[in-house]
Structures are given as structure tokens and as C-alpha cells.
TrEMBL record, chain A:
Compartments it resides in: Periplasm
Organism: Ensifer oleiphilus
Family from the record: Belongs to the bacterial solute-binding protein 1 family.
Signal peptide: 1-22
Protein name per the record: Sugar ABC transporter substrate-binding protein
UniProtKB/TrEMBL annotation, chain B:
Gene Ontology cellular-component terms listed: plasma membrane
Subcellular location: Cell membrane
Family of the protein in this entry: Belongs to the binding-protein-dependent transport system permease family.
Protein name: Carbohydrate ABC transporter permease
Transmembrane region(s): 12-33, 68-96, 108-131, 143-163, 184-209, 240-261
Pfam families hit by this protein: BPD_transp_1
Species this chain originates from: Ensifer oleiphilus
Amino acid sequence: MNLRTFLLGTCSAVALAGLAQAETLTIATVNNGDMIRMQKLTDDFTSKNPDITLEWVTLEENVLRQRVTTDIATKGGQYDIMTIGTYEVPIWAKQGWLLPLDNLGADYDVDDLLPAIRSGLTIDGKLYAAPFYGESSMVMYRKDLFEKAGLTMPDAPTWDFIADAARKITDKSNEVYGICLRGKAGWGENMAFLTATANAFGARWFDENWKPQFDQPEWKYALDFYVKLMNDAGPPGASSNGFNENLSLFQTGKCGMWIDATVAASFVTNPKESTVADKVGFALAPDTGLGKRGNWLWAWNLAIPAGSQKVAAAEKFIAWATGKDYLKLVADKEGWANVPPGTRTSLYANPEYQKAAPFAKMTLDSINAADPKNPSVKPVPYVGVQFVAIPEFQGLGTAVGQQFSAALAGQMSVDDALASAQKLTEREMTKAGYIK
Amino acid sequence: MARNVSTRRKIVVTVVAWTIGILIFFPILWTFLTSFKTEAEAIASPPSLFFFDWTTENYHEVQSRSNYFLHFMNSVVVSFGSTLIGLIIAIPSAWAMAFSPTKRTKDVLMWMLSTKMMPSVGVLVPMYLLFRNTGLLDTRTGLVIVLTLINLPIIIWMLYTYFKEIPGEILEAARMDGASLSNEIIYVLTPMAIPGIASTLLLNIILAWNEAFWTLNLSAAKAAPLTAFIASYSSPEGLFYAKLSAASTMAIAPILILGWFSQKQLVRGLTFGAVK
């Protein structure tokens, strides 16, 4: 062997070893502001971990859900890290599709995670996904319109107050509507809002034996209340309004109140997007005096699919993206108002964050008030506030949502919508084996 | 034979044609205009048509967030590749069915069309498993294969219809002159069917370019074409209309330009045989 061959061989061996060490993580994620910001800040991670490169697959929420579900159910192995919601985590963990996150590092401080969020991601004492950003729901209202009508919003309003105020504020000739609520059919659209709201009215999806409860008076009261309120004080065509439609209406000054995700607070108070940025107040989601508020709980979380070959690298990334230092990094680069909310207790204790985000306290109170394990007044056999964490819920929720959306649009009566919801839920639950 | 058409009739027809044309074109124009608005202007009501602060901010944002060129190249490879392979298979098949039909030719044609009748999602899991086992997930090769298979029935049907218009006697004459089968197809049939082949080619490139079910479901980071690029700009929470419009404009621009330049061929091919 001459020197040249030897050198060549050594170089190749070194190059191959380098190739073998450099790991590429493919991360499937949802398209929202906080996730996009994270993609832009990944230089910080790759500079600390030069042996790891990142590839992003950013998709719209519904496309992402279909895509990652197909992949994990077939063990396709396309992704090393998946962004999933609180709905998927308990179902997938029970299926054995996710790896428990045991090695996030000594300084990760798992106890700092908000207890309500953490409990939704913990199964049998093990954390299966790390929350990247969390949200609840709350009331956003126009302080100027309330003042004009001589009303004062309490911090913790009742549904009766909300309905009364909505009717007083409504001025249809000037296109000002007292309240904007979701009406578009879908398990994550109107049913997220209605399932959570129904909890405050004492209604529940199923009793302890998985029997559907749409034939009970609580549901009739809740749905009747919602439909009448929206007919009197809601915008026209409300049955096709989801988050974004209501966001547009609120930002252009057409809604007196809007009850929706806490993440909306940063949009409606952003003067670049909103014409009412300096006139918005916040309050807890309303109740009916039964002890439960209709505020939901949702988080986007990072999880590692079982069977992944790159667990150590994936854990490193998750610890970076959901750790305390990441919050500081965002604050340094983009300001405290842009820090992903709703995951860590320490963030809400930070005076700088409190100053930058006027809605911080209300967001924290709303998240803390949500109880996914006891969502309604009566006991339930399921986990979830605005959803029921069973695999059948996506289909069921959307089918029931279509009935309720039709009731809102006036295509069927509230009674018919509930009867039809009851019938279809009974059929599906019997077929799925929940009802013997 | 030319007919006398009254001026009034001409005006009516022109107005109707323009109205329909503008109606069809309006969504694209609207997307284009929205892509130059800010997010706040994009949702403003009443919307402004031309009088707003034009900005290219959305294009900058899209450029900085996504690797447009990677998605664009994937789209080009996948749509052109699948269409060309489809044509290579379809020309001989359509020839066989048009010029030497058997008793079962009609059934075969119907059977091929029937594969288009099944909703794609029905075979998603088996296809995904096949792709996983053969290592084709997130590869351009995999997408080319699946799009070739999907569009093959349409290509064969279109070519079959065009070939039927060509008199069999011409091919017979070529055969009498001693042309072999391949020579007959390459030198006689294909040149005569060029308008038909060209429009089939263009239509299938457009179909493959816009195919958004399989390309989204079977790709991840490496082979994702422009459909995945667009899907990353829609969001259920937050304003995205202006950025989505910019992404859509960038995704449809290449195929729109291709269609513009080849519209003569396209129209000629699509109306081929309509007037006889």
C-alpha cells in the first residue's frame, strides 16, 4: 500500500464516519405563528448540536393530522418528531405508538410544566409528549362598546350576563353584533366550543356507561340557549364561521364579544392586524353557576414515534424546543409578547412577560381552571374538555357538529338536531363496542 | 359552409363569452391581488380591488420560510416524468385498441375508467404500506409511479379518441409499403396525432401538477412538490390569506405560463375531430 492509497482510504473512512454521525431529524409540524418562529430560531439548536440537522414538514392542521396518523398507524417511519394535539396523545400512548420522554435532561425541569397541561400528556405516570404551546378559551370583549351600553364585564361572568350584554350591544344597522361564536361544523370547530360550553350547562357526551346524553334536558337547554343567542345577537351566516372568520369579524370591529382560544388574544391586540387593538378586554369563559366553566384545554406537543431510530437526537431537540431557555431565546430575539404561551409556570411568574402580555393572567387562570379528567358537572368515563379522547370522536364530533350547525342555520329545529345526534352517536358507539 | 351571423348575435355571444371568461378567471385574479395586500387588508370588508398599499412583503416571507425551488423542481420532475412515462405506455395501448379492436376492447376501456371512480382515500393505507415496504415513501420515483398509474386511464382514453379519428387506411398503406409495427406507430401514427398527443400531454401535466392527495400523503420533506408548499400556508388559527395567496400565485404561475404559451395546441387538440 503506498502513501497515496493510505491517505485516500483514511480520508474516506473519516468522511464515512462523519456521515454516519450527522443525523437528520425530520420534524412534522403545524402551521402556526409559534411553530414558524421556532423554525427560524433553529440555528441556536444546530450551533449547539452540529451533528444534528433538521428537516421541516410544515402542514395545515387537518392535513398534518391525516398525514402523521397514516404514518404512525402504519409505522411508516417518515418522521422523527411529530407535532400532535392533546387529543391524540392519550390515544396514541395507549396504542404504544409513542415513546415516553424519560431523558429530557437534568435541567429540563418537568415540574415547571403547567399541571393541567402536563396531566393531559401523562399516561400511567409517564410523560409521552412535551408541550410546545398551550391554550384555553376565554371571553374577549370590546371595552368601548360595553362602556357605551353602560355595562361592566365581571372577571368571571355568567352565561346570563353574556347573553344579556350581547343583546344590548347588538346594533345590526351598523353591523355590530353582540357575540361571535363558532358555528362551522367540525369536531375541532363548533363542537370544540359547544362541547366545552355544554360542560358549563351540566351536559356531557356520555354517562358512565358510555350512553350518549343528547336526549337529556341539559343538552336541550345548552343548545337552545346557543341558537337563540346567536339568532338574536350573532353575525349573519354564523353557521359557517370558525376561528378565522370570527377573528376577522372581531378585528374589523364587528363583534362585541368573542369566546374562543386564548391564543386569539395576541392577534386581536396586535395593532398591525386589528382595528380594535387598544379596546379589548378579557374575562374567564362564562358559567351557569353549576361549578364548571366552559373553558377548554389544548396544547400542541412534540412527541417521538415508537420505533424511531434517532431517539437520543429527537429528545435533545424536544428538550431544546420546550425548555425554559427557549422561552428566553424567543424573548431576546423577538420580545416577551411572542413567547409561546401556556406551558410553563415560571413564564407566568416572570414580571417582564406579565408586562408584555396583558392577557397573561387570564390565560393562566383559564388553563388552570380546565380539568380534562372531570370536565363536566356529572361524572364522565372519558378524558377531555372540548373533545372526548377516543379514536371515534373525530368522526362522531363532526357528524354531531353538522346537526348542530344545521340547527343554527335554521335548517332543522334544536329538538330534531339533538334527536338525530343521539341516534347517530348511539349507533356508532354500539358499533364500536362501547355500548354492549 | 359559412353562415351569416347578425351583428346583434355577435355582440351577445361576445358579451356572454367575456362574462364567463371573467367569472372563471376572477378567483385567480383575486388570489393574485390578495398576495400583494397585508393580512389586515386581505380580510378588510368591504374589500378593495386595486386601491390598497401594494406590498411584496408576503413574497419575501414565503421565500424566507420555504425552499420554493426544491418544491418547484419536485413538481416539475413528478408531473413531467409521470406524463412522459404515461405516454410511452399509452400510445401503443391506444393504438391497439383503436386499430385492432377485439370483442373486449370496450370492456377494457370501461374497466380502466372504473379505476378512476374509487375515492383515493379508500386505498391510502394499502398504498402507504406498499410504499413503506419498497422504500418509496418520500421519493420522486414513488410519486412518478403513482401519478403515472392514476393518469394512465385518462391518457389512454384521450389518445384512443384521437386515434379513432385517423383513417385506418393510411396505416394500412404504410404497412403495404413495408413499415414495421414500431415504424408505423413512430413515423406514421404519431406525427398525424401530434395535436391530440400534445393536448393530452399538457392536460396531464396540469393534472399531475395539481394532484394534491397522493403527493401530500406519500411525501414528507424530500419529495414534497408545490402542493405541500401551499398546504404549509393555510392555518385554522391565525390570519394567513395574504401569505397563502402569495404561495398559491407562486405555485400556479409556472403551469399558468405553460398553459398560456401552449393554448393554441391545447384548444386545437381538445376540439380535434369536433368539426368534420
